[in-house]
Amino acid sequence: MIDHADDLASVQAATERLLHAVGALDNAAVTQSSRLPGWTRGHVLTHLARNADALVNVFKGRPMYASAEARDADIEAGATRPLDEQLADVRESAERLRAAAAVPADWSRTVELRNGVTDRAERVPFRRWIEVELHHVDLGIGYELEDLPADFTEREIGFLAARFSGHADVPATTLSSADGRTWTTGGGADGGPVTVEGAPADLLGWLAGRRDGGALTVKGGDLPKLPPL
């Protein structure tokens, strides 16, 4: 059962963690490379702010972004701003999203995201939680996959396993975490079944494209090559 109110509270807590951590940086650190190829920390922070505004659009029934080109241009335009402007933008855009989500609405309705993707409105808060948590890790400022809340990690593994389920390039795969939980994914490609075992953080890192899977144990074949998210 999805509890969008609980997820919204988790988004707020994750945002406060990120703002506190980023607040300890300086202007020079914002211009340095993040862990995402081609993006500085300023790109990551600007993306987080614009993503919040884009989800306001989703809640209001508007297109998430005017266009892919406009999305990219907005991120580039904001990436070089000093730390205080970045912090204010992330904080204020998060508040706009919180206010939009507080408006009484039918949370079971279908909303449209990027590239024609649709989902139930009640799942949007978790999608935002993913953005905040993973991009906090992407900043490379001491917050690692192992630091993510355990309930978030479990749900995100399940979310990504469902995303790759039946994918034409991924063989039938069972994911097994060190604490005994399992998920199934893939199944659209020849080969398998493959079992991939490891710590929850390593499984999540591989599924989310943040780790190469070198820490995982694979049985029944090679580690599947996952398509980009």
TrEMBL record:
Gene3D superfamilies in the record: 3.30.1050.20, dinb family like domain (1.20.120.450)
Domain Mycothiol-dependent maleylpyruvate isomerase metal-binding: 12-139
GO MF term list: isomerase activity
Domain MDMPI C-terminal: 147-227
Keywords: Isomerase
Isomerase keyword on record: yes
Protein name: Maleylpyruvate isomerase
Organism listed in the record: Streptomyces variabilis
